[in-house]
Structures are given as structure tokens and as C-alpha cells.
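dumping this here before i forget
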Amino acid sequence: MNIILRVLLAVYAFFLTIASMFAMLVTIKSDILSEAYTYLYNDVLAHRNPSIIMFIVSSIFFCLSLTFLLSGFKPEGDKKAIIKYNKNGDIRITLNSIENIALATSRKLNGIRDSKAFVTKVGEGVSITVKAIVLPDINIPLLSEDMQQKVKSAVEDCTGVQVDSVRVLVESIFTGYKSARVE
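structure:
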């Protein structure tokens, strides 16, 4: 549930609390209901503007009720893990675990100074992006292809999760010193 739905749910719960307090009060003192009905019938519904406002407020609460009702039936898959089923139960492999496998594999390669890995879930598989800083005098296309193959096989061998793609982004060439910016 995102933050907007949570705020709406809080507002909805607040007004529902007031309505339930009114219902409890009516059960204790029943003439409040007839006074409220008389007020609504004579003062609110008799005039056009208050009845329009009451219709709009009622429509908003109706829409909120439908939204919360339907959000309860919406299947919410686990977005941060890959779930595999076997005869003993289910196995959840988090995307963070897959990210760490890709990171460890990419850092073992010669010519990689530093790397970062990002994993996104694509159906039952994953897509991996590796951002790397490479050493100078390295054949970047060969290194990138080697990284793609090794990361893909390491993740698939360790987790059994299908890797749809491995993207390699060479962010920088390591020079060994920080260059002073000349402006």
C-alpha cells in the first residue's frame, strides 16, 4: 500500500470512528437519531447547496470504501524476492542476495576496480545491471562480455533463478588519482 492510500485510509478511519461513536450514542439515547434525521431532512436536503455537498462527500466515501475493499483482493506478489516452490515448501531468494552474488562475481574479474550491481525482478526471472569502474588498458568489450557470462552463470548456478539479461555499464576508468577540476 503506497503512502497516498495510507493517508486516505487514516482519514477514512477517522471519519468511520466518528460515525461509530454516533451509532453508539444513538443506541444510548435514541431521540438523537430523530433529531439528526429532522435536521438533515429540513435543513440540509431541503436546500440545493448543502445536499450537493453531502452527495459529494458521500461519493468520496463510497469511492474510498470500494478502493479499500478492492485493494484487499489485489494479489500482492513479493516484489523483493524470487519464490521457488519444491515438494518441501517454498524458497524465497531476495533480490539483495542475487545482487551480492553478481557483485562478488564481477569483482573477481581482472580489470575491475570497483562495481555495483542492481537487480530487478522480471516475471519469474531477474535482470541485472552491473556498473563498473575498470582499470586502464583493458579491452572493455571483452571484459564486459566476460562479466555478463560469469554473472549470469554464477547467479543461475547459485540460485536456480533465470537471468534474463545482464547489462554492463562502464562508469569510469580508474586512473589512480583524483583529477583537479580546471574551470
